[in-house]
């Protein structure tokens, strides 16, 4: 094992050297390489230790990295239940590494896994690795045949979920549901239960498929396929699908039970050579303060099949980048948005009125996005006639124009209203423009003289 470990780290060192020479990270690789080494087998009650080494192969310094470990119920940690987070954060210069040790006590038989994930200061996943232990019962005077190992890659434990509610469920049954989005299917995971006889063994495969990429607000369709590849019926099992905070639930195949960030199905016995399918539809949501020009966030859905004969468990995971559709806010000056406010009559005789013209212009190179315009008239002023356009909301002296659409580059749009004053003096009106894609407001003012004659 030490020779293999040495060769592994020669390979990682070569990756780091290549990245440093190129001045950046090779496409498709996580910025942080994670290696977890530890025992492959153990017995109930045994204390096991895992050495974790993380390497910064991004080609640039990384700061305030968090180390979080998610582990199966068969692991017991003295600090807390899953997940646990290492105290404080770490900084890594380019090409450097850091080591730490994780200790667990083995509580349950079967394949028990834990996953180390590295999270940066923007809460984005930057690297991770999984390690598993095949746990056997404590030895007795009479040897007990052990279950064969699960033929499966490591399962990612589910992080503590948050609550949400479903809309109407779909009517999907065991038949294959239609999937509109492009799907990616990982290699099937197989759980083999201890043999009931020398020649009859139930065996299950689980595969979870989902979209390659999503935009915020889009619908993600995930399909779990459970196949019996053995020679006898499987018996009843339980399928759980859980999701990260980047998703909210929409629909699920009939028969689901809703939990906190999780749905479950009780599956009937599956005959040899047959399969069952269950579908979950989720709404994707990019994190707050993420924009179209920032890297996409990463969210995952996890499938866990439990209740398999012999106490085994099989799992699969599908992760997808979620890209924000929100444009980065710009100041009105950066966006090229201009506002002017002018009166048609000045001065105005006693009892007369003046008409204000507010013009919004876009001298930038991209559309302004939806806008909000409000014009405030002077104290004691009274509106005369209807503003144009006439769809307005009036709150005291403030007139807000509804449905101000996006102004295209080089375009402009105008708004009008008239008011009068009960006595002489100077009236000052103000126009204020804001927008969903603007950072801040732009104002314009106009002063009109009202004579007492």
Walk me through the structure:
By secondary structure, the protein is mostly beta strands. It has three domains: 1-137, Immunoglobulin-like; 172-194 and 202-328, Immunoglobulin-like, CATH 2.60.40.680; 332-450, ntegrin, alpha v. Chain A, domain 4 (Immunoglobulin-like), CATH 2.60.40.1530. It is 6% helix and 48% strand. The strands form six sheets. Strands 2, 4, 6, 7, 9 and 10 form a six-stranded mixed sheet that branches. Strands 11, 12, 13, 15, 17 and 20 form a six-stranded antiparallel sheet that branches. Strands 14-22-21-16-19-18 form a six-stranded mixed sheet, with no helix packed on it. A hairpin with a 5-residue loop joins strand 9 (110-119) and strand 10 (125-136). The longest helix is centred in the N-terminal third of the chain and has 21 residues, at 2-22. The radius of gyration is 32 Å and the shape is elongated. Mean pLDDT is 79; it is low at 1-28 and 141-199.
What is this entry, summarized?
By secondary structure, the chain is mostly beta strands.
What brief labels describe this structure?
453 residues; mainly beta; Immunoglobulin-like; six-stranded mixed beta sheet; six-stranded antiparallel beta sheet; 2 helices; elongated; disordered N terminus
* Overall radius of gyration: 32 Å
The assigned structural class equals mainly beta
Quote the beta fraction. over 45%
Distance between the termini: 102 Å
Which percent range fits the helix content? under 10%
């Amino acid at each position: 094992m030490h020779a293999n470990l040495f060769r592994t780290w020669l390979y990682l060192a070569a990756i780091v050297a290549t990245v440093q020479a190129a001045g950046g990270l090779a496409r498709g690789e996580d910025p942080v390489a994670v290696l977890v080494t530890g025992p492959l087998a153990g017995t109930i009650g045994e204390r096991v230790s895992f050495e974790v080494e993380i390497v910064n192969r991004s080609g640039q310094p990384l700061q305030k990295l968090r180390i979080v470990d998610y582990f199966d119920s068969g692991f017991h940690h003295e600090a807390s239940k899953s997940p646990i987070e290492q105290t404080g954060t770490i900084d890594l210069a380019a090409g450097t590494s850091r080591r730490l040790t994780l200790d667990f006590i083995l509580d349950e038989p079967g394949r028990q896994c834990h996953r180390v994930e590295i999270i940066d200061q923007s809460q984005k996943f930057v690297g991770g690795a999984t390690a598993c232990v095949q746990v056997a019962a404590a030895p007795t005077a009479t040897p007990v045949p052990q279950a064969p190992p699960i033929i499966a890659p490591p399962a990612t434990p589910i992080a503590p979920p948050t609550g949400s509610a479903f809309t109407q469920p779909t009517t999907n049954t065991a038949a294959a549901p239609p999937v509109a989005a492009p799907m990616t299917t990982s290699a099937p995971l197989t759980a083999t239960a201890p043999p009931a006889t020398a020649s009859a063994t139930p065996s299950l495969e689980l595969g979870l498929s989902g979209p390659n990429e999503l935009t915020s607000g889009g619908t993600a369709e995930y399909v779990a396929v459970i196949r019996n590849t053995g020679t006898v019926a499987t018996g009843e099992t339980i399928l759980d699908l859980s999701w990260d905070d980047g998703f909210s639930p929409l629909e699920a195949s009939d028969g689901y039970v809703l939990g906190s960030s999780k749905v479950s199905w009780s599956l009937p016995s599956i005959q040899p050579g047959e399969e069952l399918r269950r579908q979950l539809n989720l709404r994707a949501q990019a994190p707050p303060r993420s924009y179209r020009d920032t890297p996409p966030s990463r969210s995952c859905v996890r499938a866990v099949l439990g209740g398999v004969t012999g106490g085994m468990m099989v799992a699969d995971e599908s992760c997808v980048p979620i890209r924000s559709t929100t444009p980065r806010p710009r100041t009105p000056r950066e966006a090229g948005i201009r506002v002017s406010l002018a009166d048609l009559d000045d001065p105005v005789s006693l009892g007369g009125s003046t008409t204000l013209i507010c013009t919004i212009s876009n001298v930038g190179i991209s559309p302004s996005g939806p806008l909000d315009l409000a014009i405030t008239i002077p104290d004691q002023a009274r509106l005369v006639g209807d503003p144009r356009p006439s769809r307005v909301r009036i709150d005291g002296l403030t007139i807000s124009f509804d449905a101000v659409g996006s102004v295209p580059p080089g375009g402009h749009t105008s708004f009008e209203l008239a008011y009068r004053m009960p006595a002489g003096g100077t009236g000052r009106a103000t126009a204020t423009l804001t927008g969903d894609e603007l950072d801040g407001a732009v104002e314009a003012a106009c002063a009109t003289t009202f004579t007492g004659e």
